[in-house]
Amino acid sequence: MQEQNPYRAPSASFNASAFDEAYDETPPFSPAGRFGRLSYLAWSLVLGFVGGISMAVFMPVMFSLDATDADILAGMTSGGMLLAMIPMFVLGAIFGIRRLHDINKSGWWLLLFIVPIVNLILGLVLTFMPGSDGANDFGPPRETRVWEKIFAWLYIALIVLGIVAQVAMIGVLSSQGL
Questions:
Q1: Are 80 and 56 in contact (CB under 8 A)?
Q2: CA separation for the pair 131, 63 (Å, rounded)
Q3: Quick check: 63 and 127 in contact, CB under 8 A?
Q4: pLDDT of 129
């Protein structure tokens, strides 16, 4: 019988592939992989913020034109806005695909966004439906980073504040008879 050396360094069986499957580490701009609810909300907030900045850049130019140069500059500004919105659309689709992967659905379900009323239901599903536990057909879950959690809760707070502001505005306007 072989005797164990009590001074030998401890050993553990470390399977690197099992460790890699613990969390999905695909980059966020890739349609492969999964996004949890908080990651989806955080990246949607970032995307909306960037979209708002691009609108803030192009809209004042469009509204400050006079009649003489309106045709040329309006066309250039509209084209610039369109060029800025194409990547926003693509990134929004990628985030939606990753969120669908988290609930173990194909990214093709995202095409339901073009159907009126169904798109609202799909938006609620992407926002509120929990992802599958553990690995699913699209890989292991992605770890939600701390900044994503903070941004997601900030987004939720902004949505709630927006709803409260809408209700308050309706109350004020109806009390004034408008």
A1: no
A2: 44
A3: no
A4: 94
Highest mean pLDDT among 48-62, 87-101, 131-145: 87-101
d(CA 108, CA 102): 14
Rounded Cα distance between 70 and 74, Å, is 5
Distances in Å between the Cα of 126 and the Cα atoms of 34, 40, 44, 119, 147 are 12, 8, 11, 10, 20
**Tens of pLDDT along 43-86?**
999 999 998 888 887 777 666 655 555 566 566 666 777 777 89
d(C-alpha 115, C-alpha 121), whole Å = 10
Cα separation of 162 and 152, whole Å?
Answer: 15
- Secondary structure of residue 130 in the 3-state scheme: coil
Which tokens is 65 given? 């034109």
What's the CA gap between 52 and 73, in Å, rounded? Answer: 21
